[in-house]
Design brief:
- The chain has helices spanning 9-15, 18-33, 103-122, 137-148, 160-170, 178-181, 224-229, 237-243, 246-251, 263-267, 289-302; strands at residues 3-7, 43-47, 51-60, 63-71, 83-91, 97-102, 129-133, 152-156, 173-174, 186-189, 208-211, 231-234, 260-262, 281-284, 310-313.
- It is α/β, with parallel strands linked by helices.
- It folds into two domains: 3-106 and 290-313, ornithine cyclodeaminase, domain 1 (2-Layer Sandwich), CATH 3.30.1780; 123-287, Rossmann fold (3-Layer(aba) Sandwich).
- The strands form two sheets. Strands 9-8-7-10-11-14-12-13 form an eight-stranded parallel beta sheet. A seven-stranded mixed beta sheet has the order 2-3-4-5-6-1-15.
- The chain is globular and about 60 Å long.
- The chain starts with a strand and ends with a strand.
Length: 314
Amino acid sequence: MTAIPVFTAAQVEQAVSPEQAVEVVREAFVAYARGEWTMPPKVYVTNYPAGDFRAMPALGNGRALLKWVNSFPGNPTRGLPTVSGVVLVSDADDGRLLAFLDAGAVTALRTGAAAVVAAETLGRADAELAAVIGVGVNGRAVARTFQARGQRVLLWDVDAERARRVAEETGASASESLADALRADTIATVTPGYEIVLDEGSLRPGRHVSLMGADGPGKAEAASNELARAHVFCDDWEQASHGGELAHAIEDGALTRAEVTELGAVLMGEAAGRVSDDEVTAFDSTGLAIQDLAITLAALDAAPSLPDLARIEL
């Protein structure tokens, strides 16, 4: 029998700081763009309108990962988390299972990191204020990650009391209105993706938006015409064009493949990012298993410093 360590949500957060998450996720984008890490498209098992399940595999740095995670937006009314699941990581050379990790915590860390990596890569160099639209678990993580990188943070949520509560918890500020939040230098939308947040004309010149919520079929946070106004980037074309923010804009004919750049290509220096201070940039994040792998590898590296890790005998 083998004792397999189990990382709780708190232990994942203890093992990997937001600052470290940004660095390892940036490196994962590059490794994936170079073909050093591989990742088949995620598989959805849907039960809409209740929610969906996702199976997300990845391979890199001698490790194989599978994240089995779900998203049920109505769960908070039941006292349950919106996102839950488990990450399994194995040795890629002999198949040995190495660890279990709480998928919600891994997802929150890499969501915050991806939003900030995109903003730092595509936003204006003088950006100082970041607005986070939607402050559930992942929205909180995005806010904390922006703060860890030295940005002032403004929060807005359809539940104004929740925005105020999270602002008090994180040291951010709560916005009086969505319109005020959209005046920020950088914007991250972290909503369930079932309603348009950015109507046509919402984004002022020079703004960057990281669109983090529309991570499955039928979801969208930005109107097609608003996306068409922007210089558009994505985490992975295959995922984004079929089950992300871009899908509806492509179906409407507002965007084509030639008008969308993968972020990894920009990080490698093979494609241009922002080309002027007045340009509007938009990043479509669908959530990649290689990002989960990056967080997981960092957590495994920190395991010796976590003496209270539980273990399961298998």
